[in-house]
Amino acid sequence: MIWSHTVIERQLQPLLHELVGVVLAPTSALGDATGQIRPTGVQGVFHADARVLSQAELRVDDRELEGLTHGGDGPHGARFVSLARWLGDPVPDPTVRVDRLRRATRDGLTEELRVVSTATVPVRATVSVDLACDLAPIEVVKSGGAAAALEAKTGQPGVLTWSTEGITVTVTGAGADVLATGERITAPRLAWPVELPPGGETVLRWHLTVEDPRAVVIGPAGEPDWSRPKVTADDRRLVRLLDRSLDDLRGLRLAETGAPGDVFLGAGVPWFLTLFGRDSLWAARMMLPLGTDLAAGTLRVLARRQGTRVDPATGEGPGKILHELRRHEFALPDGGLRLPPAYYGTVDATMLWVNLLHDAWRWGLPVEQIEPLLPHLEAALRWLGEHADPDGDGLVEYIDTTGHGLSNQGWKDSGDAVRFHDGSLATAPIVLAEVQGYAHEAAVNGAALLDAFGRPGGDRWRAHAAALARRFRDSFWVDGRYGPQPALALDRDKRPVDSLTSNIGHLLGTGLLTGDEEDQVARLLTTDTLAGGFGLRTMSTDDAGFSPLSYHCGSIWTHDTAIVLAGLARAGHRDAALGLAEGLLAAAEAFDYRLPELYGGDDRSLVNRPVPYPAACRPQAWAAASAVLLLQAATGLYPDVPGGTVRLAPLAGAELGALTVSGFRLAGTSVDISVGRTGHPIITGLPTTLTPTPTVPTQRRPTTSTPH
Q: Which residue ranges does the record assign to the Putative glycogen debranching enzyme N-terminal domain (predicted)?
């Protein structure tokens, strides 16, 4: 018998885990470890939603250099060190070295090429950079598609331009010869003849600028408004992680075109460098210990785009908060996913907006900044009460009615994210567990804000929250391998989706659970099936849908782990929180302290370092902001500025080590916190209106009663 098979070419999302990135939003660049930007995959220079350079390959005498190493150079730069061993003295040691310094700018990119000779003879060579521009939309690149290189235009010496659809890309190479005719019209070259005396060096420069008047996002001017605390710690990994993360967050700042003063964080490089409701809100919430300005800007920019009407095509609803913003329709070439430029297909961003406003208030957001947002708060609560529960069963649910929107609309938004224990997919409408927690928290937090600002409705929303908690308790708890557990979701028929997932960790601190129920959730989160990797797995290894490199069914997400860690710490589950903290810090060390969006959920005993998820954004806003949330949990700073109190319950101490943070910002004032190895906190610089209430670090001991 002769066996034959047909090979079907798949159009795959390109891998980027080994690429080196620089970013100063809305510009980012990705190249290989030698510094080359090759015309393949996701390599390129991007400006907002377009790839403005698809190639930038450096050669000397038309030969590739041999790469030695690379590293960061400031918050928005990278340095690549290479050799030209065929030049210089004929000795074993290399005598001609090329350093390539790349820096992102708000409107483009610059490169400095430093050629250094230690040879005893003169060196003559030609240094060149081959370029190409395809202006491919980001969704084409993400899907593994390709776009044809555009023809370059020449004019002034050393200048190349490309333009289409309102975008103009200009490359200038001072002193370079330009080759852009014939076959090189779509692959032009900048070339510099170089002559070095013995021991000489030269520096060559080229820069890219982008004119993009139709962009929906811009880079804000000036420095970040948040503080940059000085940290000393026994565990130096925490210091290094915070430093790298704050550099990355500086580069992810964006503003909406026409409103440059309201700064928010773009979600991540390269796919999501724009406004994303959920991502931008979570990142701003994590950043509150460094000040409330970022939260205020994020709240305002989303309030301006808050929904006003029911529109199934965009997912908009009155009071609903936006999911994502693009310059044009985001349409994958396979004809499946097709999202309008302003898309509202998210079930949780509206509640997260309310919760960010509340938490910013607790951290000292000034009254004059809160009051203009109160009508938007009331609109968001109305959406929760009138539109978030279409079937009227008392729970928040979602369904995409268009057939080309997101089929899953929680933070786990891939098409296969909601799976039963046996691996089968749940059918929409879907009722997610953590979303009920966010909704409960938003109702309680919204009521507190309404009361504080003399607006009606507080009692209504507290009653709403109580009813939601009862409905959740009756509907979600199922029996699992480790005892009772909240289901991941309810499906169309209100059947509990009985897989064990990280989603349940987001319920901690929302008020939806009783103390005993929180204790049981903490037990579940510490099982090896969820916590056996470098952080918290999104799905347990016991579930049939588990795969360590699944996007949402077994991988580890940095922000997910940090959110759950913080919830455990705040609830007094020190051992569980410390275990997740160690996983995150070990992962940070393995990723050179630039934590990616997600990574593999392999067991720590199998591989001694986390396995990269090959298409993860890096840097990514809520992954980088997780360093601040970890720092807050370590110091245990929990303020209530309107209430005049600050609770101190540090995670730092005997296990995590001593820690000092100078420059947290509370009610506009810089405060310092020191935690010794015994776990005793000392805070200085508090406003006189605030009273600290230290808590002795103890491990909460769960009761033996069942939670349901």
A: 26-206
Residue-wise pLDDT tens digits, 649-661: 999 998 999 999 9
How many angstroms separate the CA atoms of 284 and 296, rounded? 9
CATH superfamily entry for domain 20-215:
Glycoside hydrolase, family 65, N-terminal domain (2.70.98.40)
- For CA atoms 19, 23, 28, 34, give the dihedral sign: negative
Q: How many CB atoms lie under 10 A from the CB of residue 5?
A: 5
pTM for this prediction: 0.96
**Three-point CA angle 634, 640, 642, nearest 5°:** 160
DSSP string covering 66-130? EEEEEEE-STTEEEEEEE-TTSS-SSSS--EEEEEEEEEETTEEEEEEEEEE--SS-EEEEEEEE
| DSSP-assigned beta bridge partners for residue 102 | 78, 111
Residue % of the chain over a pLDDT of 70: 97
Q: What is the pLDDT of residue 165?
A: 81
Mean pLDDT of the chain: 95
Name residues whose C-beta falls within 8 Å of residue 681's C-beta, 6 or more positions apart in sequence.
635, 636, 648, 650, 673, 674, 675, 694
- Exposure string of 413-426, with b = 16+ CB inside 10 Å and e = fewer, is beebbbbbbeeebb
Q: Could you tell me the CA-to-CA distances from 5 to 9, 10, 85, 385 in Å, in that order?
A: 13, 15, 47, 55
Q: How far apart are CA 294 and CA 285, in angstroms?
A: 9
Distances from the Cα of 49 to the Cαs of 46, 122, 321, in angstroms?
A: 7, 46, 22
- Dist. CA 442–CA 240, nearest whole Å: 34
CA distance 116 to 110: 19
Q: Is 137 helix (H, G, I), strand (E, B) or coil?
A: strand
What letter represents residue 600's amino acid? G
381 near 354, Cβ under 8 Å?
yes
The answer, yes or no, to whether residue 703 has pLDDT greater than 50, is: no
Find tokens 């991988």 and name the residue. 555
What single string gives the DSSP state of each residue in 339-407? E-SEE---SSHHHHHHHHHHHHHHTT--HHHHGGGHHHHHHHHHHHHHTS-TT-SSS--B--SSSSS-S
**600 CB contacts (<8 Å, ≥6 apart)?**
533, 548, 549, 555, 556, 610, 611, 612, 613
- What is the residue extent of each domain of the chain? 20-215, 527-616
- DSSP secondary structure string, 308-320? -S-BTTTTB-TTP
d(CA 286, CA 223): 19
- Return the structure tokens found at 67: 């790469």
- In 10 A of CB 477, how many CB atoms? 18
Residue-level pLDDT at 1:
44
Within 10 A of 344 (CB to CB), how many other CB atoms are there? 25
Query: How confident is the model over 360-385, as a mean pLDDT?
Result: 98
Distances (CA, A) of 608 to 4, 406, 585, 604, 700: 40, 36, 13, 6, 31
With CA atoms as reference, report the closest residue to 267 among 138, 96, 112.
138
pLDDT in tens, 308-325: 999 999 999 999 999 999
Q: Is the confidence at residue 512, as pLDDT, over 80?
A: yes
Contacts of 6 (CB under 8 A, 6+ apart): none
pLDDT tens across 542-596, in order?
999 999 999 999 999 999 999 999 999 999 999 999 999 999 999 999 999 999 9
Helix or strand holding residue 463 (H, E): helix 458-475
Structure-block tokens of residue 618: 């890096």
